Amino acid sequence: MRIDLHTHSTASDGTDTPAELVVNAAAAGLDVVALTDHDTVGGHGEAAAALPEGLTLVTGAELSCRVDGIGLHMLAYLFDPSEPELARERELVRDDRVPRAQAMVRKLQELDVPITWEQVARIAGNGSVGRPHVATALVELGVVDSVSDAFTPAWLGNGGRAYADKHELDPLDAIRLVKAAGGVTVFAHPLAVKRGEVVSESVIARLAAAGLDGIEVDHMDHDEPTRARLRGLASELGLLPTGSSDYHGSRKTVRLGEYTTDPEIYGEITRRATGAFPVPGAGGPVPA
After folding, report:
1. For the chain, give me the number of helices (H) and strands (E)?
2. Secondary structure (3-state) at 168
3. What percent of the chain has pLDDT over 70?
């Protein structure tokens, strides 16, 4: 089985609609794909309705968190989307995304970048606006060559010149809330240093002690030595090591299924989840 547990659609900052994403996932030879839009479950219904035969959908979200002044992302899988406390926190984060993006636009304008809010809003469309939309505007303006180039201290990276804070969860609270909703948590791209400051291994150990289930090891923003380091840390802390593309459609160069999760690890994730179940397409594989 080929399993990709981290993708985004137009419900947040990807360029594929949820329906297009699952069709493209099947075309890429995936057996399982997780839709993990930022702080929203808005694309799940469309994705499930469009599931091709042979593809299984894992519902999830990528939650915005912050600890010790450092931003991090928590992948949450197979939780009950109607659980009220977690739903309330997702709504608070989403509501803060527009003023946060507007603040970044103002900072960029102060840096003499000819960006406008109208441009960013056009790029975001109906999605949950975020930094990738602002980064895409910078690409359109020729300020940077790629979206990834915008996620640096010079521009939108954590603590960067045009960075702005938003409401974010404490990751310990995120773990608690997701578990209370029957879900499973995986720390996304934990050592992606090109994005800005990252948390220490002692923080990851604290999260593991609080019930974190796994860490994303195989990711485009981790080089081989970093992946080896994370694999060792996962073994030491008893965490599940996952691999994912973090696919955003044409907004990034990574392809669906470029990095994948071991089927045994996927099976353990599904066994731990009680809030929701993977959705098999017509005739698709039923998870272990």
Report:
1. 11, 8
2. coil
3. 98
